[in-house]
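Researcher: Sequence recovery benchmark, item below. Answer with residues only.
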């Protein structure tokens, strides 16, 4: 079953892995760290939000939403 949920601070490692995998697939350099994700996404003034899709309780995708 598919579920979509907001990312939480405990998802930092998962987000880093997913971002790294996308960068590798697209042959793009990735310069993000778990620390920058924590600061910019889960600090007092978040610059982005993330949704995580889980299929059968396993990560299946993600979507970032940036403040404009």
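Model:
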């Amino acid at each position: 079953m598919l579920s979509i949920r907001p990312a939480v601070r405990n998802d930092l490692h998962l987000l880093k892995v997913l971002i790294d995998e996308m960068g590798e697939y697209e042959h793009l350099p990735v310069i993000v760290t778990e620390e920058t994700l924590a600061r910019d996404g889960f600090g007092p003034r978040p610059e982005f939000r993330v949704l995580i899709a889980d299929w059968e309780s396993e990560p299946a995708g993600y979507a970032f939403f940036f403040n404009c």
